[in-house]
Amino acid sequence: MDAGAANSSYNKATHYRSPLQKKNSRDDLDRFIPNRSAMDFDYAQYMLMEARKGKENPAVSSPSREAYRKQLAETFNMNRTRILAFKNKPPTPSKAVQIESLAAAAHQAKPKTRRYIPQTSERTLDAPDLVDDYYLNLLDWGSANVLAIALGNTVYLWDASNGATSELVTLDEENGPVTSVKWAPDGRHIAVGLNNSEVQLWDSISNKLLRTLRGCHSSRVGALDWNNQILTTGGMDGQIVNNDVRIRDHIVETYRGHHQEVCGLRWSASGQQLASGGNDNLLHIWDRSTASSNSPTQWLHRLEDHTAAVKALAWCPFQANLLASGGGGGDRCIKFWNTHTGACLNSVDTGSQVCSLLWNKNERELLSSHGFTQNQLTLWKYPSMVKIAELTGHTSRVLFMSQSPDGCTVASAAADETLRFWNVFGTPEVAKPASKAAQEPFAHLNRIR
User: Where are the alpha helices (DSSP H) in 40-186?
Assistant: First the structure.
């Protein structure tokens, strides 16, 4: 063969390609290169050794030996004839992969089932003689699942576990009516604020008066809140007093900043900050670390954005420094505050008097109760503040709200002298138990000690 013919045959055989040229999928199909990842080297070695042994030492075969050999070969998949593997499995079609990935993405992005919110109350109780006064706080649900409500001069207890009602105390006319009630964190002891400026501490189990706090205020006590053993009281005189109920001289700190009646008091979950609202349209944030028994404590923030009385206060359960506040009939706004900086984060005009606020403990939602003109409860999505639901049924302003210990049910008391229960926050999801570790061998057998 001459050199020209040789070069010609070489060019045909090598399929010369120029740089950056698109590769043909049929190129290089004339080369048979074993795929090592698809090979079974142990089986290949076994087959080669068996073939060599057969040539060098032919064994004497018998029917039983041959039957045993076939069964052994079938059991261990040794009936294959090919030792070297030249192909991988055919690739999965790209469309199938896309469909599968899209299906997986759709499964992951499946929207959460929307919670059903009943539009009517699940229970309604009579509340005769409920005082129609925006500045008081006459309803509270304790940690022991007992609801306290003040009706005129009497405080009643309603046990939510069995529906039993009992009377805690009935005051004389000169001391009443009751102007505020607040359960202690233990769910057993309860503070009762009176129109005569005194505060009584009661044991709800024994129905005994434990002590009476005097000298805190010069007029009625309309706001109460607990911070462990510290009972904070707010009065019509504009003063806020911290009382340590364990000691004889119970007044330990005094906060002065309001010019008119204090109608809202709420300690943060950490117990470090106190929010107070008053009929002077002011909202104050107080820091516990700066409190002093020697002189009136200076506020941390003095917030003047509301244009009516500030009674509704609620600390956010999932963000420690977020506070929601609601204004009265001349303001009608729900405002959100960063209590570290004092900045107003958002303001929403609700269209009616804001009487009370409650956060959902299980979802990012806020519930507000309102006065004129619709007398409704409104559930808001936070932070968008889109209305999720409006609950109607009360025929007069919904002055007070309180939440059950499990965070699901809300009780509302209105000037129409009814107490209604709403399953507005739903049932919290039960956490799935953690998967157990691999079971211990022979765990089903009795142990010998």
Answer: 41-56, 63-75, 94-108
pLDDT tens, residue order, the chain (449 aa):
444 444 444 444 444 444 444 445 444 455 556 666 656 667 667 666 665 555 445 555 577 777 777 776 676 665 555 555 555 555 655 555 554 555 566 556 556 677 889 989 999 999 999 999 999 999 999 999 999 999 999 999 999 999 999 999 999 999 999 999 999 999 999 999 999 999 999 999 999 999 999 999 999 999 999 999 999 999 999 999 999 999 999 999 999 999 999 999 999 999 999 999 999 999 999 998 876 666 677 899 999 999 999 999 999 999 999 999 999 999 999 999 999 999 999 999 999 999 999 999 999 999 999 998 889 999 999 999 999 999 999 999 999 999 999 999 999 999 999 999 999 998 765 544 544 444 444 444 444 33
- CA torsion angle for 193, 196, 202, 207 (degrees, to 10)? -120
The answer to whether the predicted template modeling score (pTM) of the entire model surpasses 0.85 is no
Angstrom distance (rounded) from CA 281 to CA 306: 6
Write the CB contacts of 310 (distance below 8 Å, at least 6 apart in sequence).
263, 264, 277, 278, 281, 282, 283, 325, 326, 327, 328
